């Protein structure tokens, strides 16, 4: 096994900071997620991690047909590359309703869906969908414990279902739940918590299917829980980070075997004290919502300790007598890859140590066309 797999043959050709995507490892991660769930048809990956046409096409080439995104730009990207089954994993409100419906109208051959968790939002969407002669697929968003969005499973969710069911231009496709708050390092306890949270949802679906004589899909399971949900029948899994992976999940989910497939490259740009080194990996180049010590892991400099962080600089304690020099190249695994990717206009694609392509991070924009 090559423990220096990340090293470039010619790093001097790449300016820093830079986002590197290792093509073969990303492809391997796609095969791993398919193997985990059994078939590509059981996946609806979230593209918030990669935000690029080329990465999505890798998944399409592997047989994945359905995707989801959280922004209009993300789902427009998907439509533009030929995806025919797209979920806006967000409840459209305000001008976003008009943007969503304009996109739907422009791609009549695409099956679009969105999330809803409140009747007011449903009625507003229905009114405009009716006026634009569109029929929108709807997944009712369930609050599975994150307390971020969604309606609580049970009576509140059933009542909302019945209300939306009466709306002419909305067609309920099923339920959507994200239980990413389940992160117990004890795998068995995490699975038990996942099963307990899903039980009332399963019962609710069965009752509504019997009452209305229909089949309801359930999209369940982000990265932390999709292996559990994949064991159930009639479940679509929706992880996203698997394609690039990151240190946050690698350390928190050791049972998952995905590979680091995206790194940040940076350089030592200053030696401000006898024990400090400064690299060009500021807030603008690495996700920085976590505490200072939990933002990046350097593969070729694991002993460096973050001291301070600002927009363009990351200062690290190297110890007295260190050997670092101006221009030294460091390869870092982001703790959180998704917002890190959004910080870069492009990803530099690497194969066998050399740059072979550049992928634009198209959907980092809030607006592409619509």
Within CATH, the superfamily of the largest domain carries the name: Alanine racemase
* Biggest sheet descriptor: 9 strands, mixed
**What number of domains?**
2
The DSSP helix count reads: 10
Keywords: Lyase
Domain D-serine dehydratase-like: 261-351
Organism: Cyclobacterium amurskyense
Protein name: Low-specificity D-threonine aldolase
Give the structure's gist in a few sentences.
Helices cover 30% and strands 23% of the residues. The longest helix has 26 residues.
Walk me through the structure:
By secondary structure, the protein is α/β, with parallel strands linked by helices. The protein folds into two domains: 24-243, TIM Barrel (Alpha-Beta Barrel), CATH 3.20.20.10; 257-364, D-serine dehydratase-like domain (Lyase, Ornithine Decarboxylase, Chain A, domain 1). Helices cover 30% and strands 23% of the residues. The chain contains ten helices and 16 strands. The chain has helices at 23-37, 53-61, 72-80, 95-106, 119-131, 155-165, 187-212, 226-229, 247-252, 337-341, and strands spanning 18-22, 66-69, 85-88, 111-116, 136-142, 170-177, 217-220, 235-236, 262-270, 276-279, 296-298, 305-309, 314-317, 329-334, 346-351, 354-360. The strands form two sheets. Strands 1, 9, 10, 11, 12, 13, 14, 15 and 16 form a nine-stranded mixed sheet that branches. A seven-stranded parallel sheet has the order 2-3-4-5-6-7-8. A hairpin with a 4-residue loop joins strand 12 (305-309) and strand 13 (314-317). The longest helix is centred in the middle third of the chain and has 26 residues, at 187-212. The model has no long low-confidence stretch (mean pLDDT 97). Keywords: Lyase. This is Low-specificity D-threonine aldolase. GO terms for molecular function: D-serine ammonia-lyase activity. Residues 261-351 form the D-serine dehydratase-like domain. InterPro entries: Ala_racemase_N (IPR001608), D-amino_acid_metab_enzyme (IPR051466), D-ser_dehydrat-like_dom (IPR026956), D-ser_dehydrat-like_sf (IPR042208), PLP-binding_barrel (IPR029066).
């Amino acid at each position: 096994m090559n423990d220096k797999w990340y090293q470039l043959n010619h790093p001097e050709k790449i300016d820093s900071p830079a986002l590197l995507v290792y093509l073969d490892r990303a492809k391997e991660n796609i095969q791993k997620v398919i193997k985990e769930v059994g078939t590509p048809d059981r996946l609806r990956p979230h593209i918030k991690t990669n935000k690029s046409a080329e990465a999505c096409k890798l998944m399409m080439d592997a047989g994945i047909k359905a995707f989801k995104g959280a922004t209009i730009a993300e789902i427009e990207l998907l439509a533009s590359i030929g995806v025919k089954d797209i979920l806006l994993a967000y409840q459209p409100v305000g001008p976003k309703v008009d943007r969503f419906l304009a996109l739907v109208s422009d791609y009549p051959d695409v099956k679009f869906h969105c999330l809803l968790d409140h009747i007011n939002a449903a009625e507003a969407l229905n009114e405009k969908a009716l006026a634009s002669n569109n029929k929108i697929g709807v997944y009712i968003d369930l609050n599975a414990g994150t307390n971020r969005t969604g309606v609580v499973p049970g009576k509140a969710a059933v009542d909302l279902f019945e209300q939306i069911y009466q709306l002419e231009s909305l067609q309920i496709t099923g339920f959507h739940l994200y239980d990413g708050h389940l992160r117990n390092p004890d795998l068995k306890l995490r699975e038990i918590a996942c099963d307990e949270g899903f039980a009332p949802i399963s019962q609710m679906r069965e009752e509504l299917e019997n009452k209305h004589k229909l089949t309801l899909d359930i999209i369940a399971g982000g990265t932390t829980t999709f292996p559990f949900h994949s064991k159930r029948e009639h479940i679509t899994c929706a992880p996203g980070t698997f394609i690039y992976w990151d240190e946050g999940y690698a350390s928190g989910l050791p049972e998952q075997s995905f590979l680091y497939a995206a790194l940040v490259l940076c350089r030592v740009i200053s030696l401000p004290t006898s024990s400090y080194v400064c690299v060009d990996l500021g807030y603008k180049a690495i996700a920085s919502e976590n505490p200072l010590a939990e933002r990046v892991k350097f593969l070729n400099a694991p002993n460096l300790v973050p001291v301070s962080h600002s927009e363009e600089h990351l200062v690290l304690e190297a110890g007295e007598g260190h050997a670092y020099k101006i221009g030294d190249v460091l390869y870092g695994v982001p703790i959180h890859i998704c917002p890190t990717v959004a910080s870069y206009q492009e990803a530099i694609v690497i194969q066998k140590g050399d740059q072979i392509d550049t992928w634009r991070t198209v959907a980092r924009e809030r607006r592409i066309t619509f």
